[in-house]
Amino acid sequence: MIARQETEEAIEEFEQGDEPKEKRELVIPGEVIATGNDYLPGDWAKRDGQDIIALRFGLADKSGRLIKIIPLSGTYIPRKGNVVIGKVLDITFNGWIMDIDAPYPSFLPLIECSKFVNKNDLSECYDIGDMLAVKVLGVKRKGIDLTARGKNLGKLEEGMIIKINSNKVPRVIGKEGSMINLIKKESNCDITVGQNGIIWIRGEKVEDELFAEKAILFVTEKSFIEGLTKKTKDWLEETKNNPKDIKEDKADKKKAKEAK
């Protein structure tokens, strides 16, 4: 009980925003990250005697007494409370079957819809192929329960969808949303980042959306380095002053669309 209480206190310290005391380092499964009872294991870490051991390949994050691993590879593992983005695959008499890129089937029940639903035609609310922002209500052995009730949840209109490794999501969001807020500001786009690695971007212009996409991909490619926020700021400024690549991407996407 005492160990559990200490772990909860350490997690609370981390969530309140304490800066990491040490530089984040790449670790592999089985690697000893720290030794001693002063440290407590967080996400993807465990205690083995006096040692704290990594369970995943990623960055070791030491904040206060808590040590957790920020994974850099692997599939998305859903957790209760996660906001994710998914596609409607099918419609049943009492809800929608969805694909959230998870190992288990996902279901959005009728009662968890965010607006009025015509029970005789559920497609008037959400149709097959629609992209939705939803929250994980619970994870069971047979599947995942979802809800579309809540702020910024529901159908995603227009814009573009991109997919990144779900383990890079914490780096894209940043500490207390610092990284994604920076990208939103500089690109002038609305962005929803799903914990499953699916991201929705909507801007007034296609160029803005492509700029945001490139910024997000820049962060994912550099996710293992220190000082990422500053490097991203420099990249954003440099790319804004030289938008040639963005225009070329727009032309390429236009050609691809016409070829379909």
What would you say this structure looks like, in words?
There is one protein chain. The protein is an alpha+beta fold and 260 residues long. It has three domains: 2-71, Beta Barrel (OB fold (Dihydrolipoamide Acetyltransferase, E2P)); 83-155, Beta Barrel (OB fold (Dihydrolipoamide Acetyltransferase, E2P)), CATH 2.40.50.140; 160-259, K Homology domain, type 1 (Ribosomal Protein S8, Chain: A, domain 1). 29% of the residues lie in helices and 31% in strands. It contains six helices and 16 strands. The chain has helices at residues 2-15, 169-173, 178-187, 206-221, 228-241, 244-259, and strands at residues 25-27, 32-35, 40-41, 45-48, 51-54, 58-63, 66-71, 83-92, 95-99, 106-109, 131-140, 143-147, 154-155, 160-163, 189-193, 198-203. The strands form four sheets. Strands 8-9-10-12-11 form a five-stranded mixed barrel. A hairpin with a 2-residue loop joins strand 4 and strand 5. Helix 3 (178-187) runs parallel beside helix 5 and helix 4 packs antiparallel against helix 5 (228-241). The chain is flat and about 60 Å long. It starts with a helix and ends with a helix.
Write the layout of secondary structure elements.
Blueprint: H1 2-15, E1 25-27, E2 32-35, E3 40-41, E4 45-48, E5 51-54, E6 58-63, E7 66-71, E8 83-92, E9 95-99, E10 106-109, E11 131-140, E12 143-147, E13 154-155, E14 160-163, H2 169-173, H3 178-187, E15 189-193, E16 198-203, H4 206-221, H5 228-241, H6 244-259
Parallel strand pairs: 3-7, 10-12
Antiparallel strand pairs: 1-6, 2-5, 4-5, 6-7, 8-9, 8-11, 9-10, 11-12, 11-13, 14-16, 15-16
Helix pairs in contact: 3-4, 3-5, 4-5, 4-6
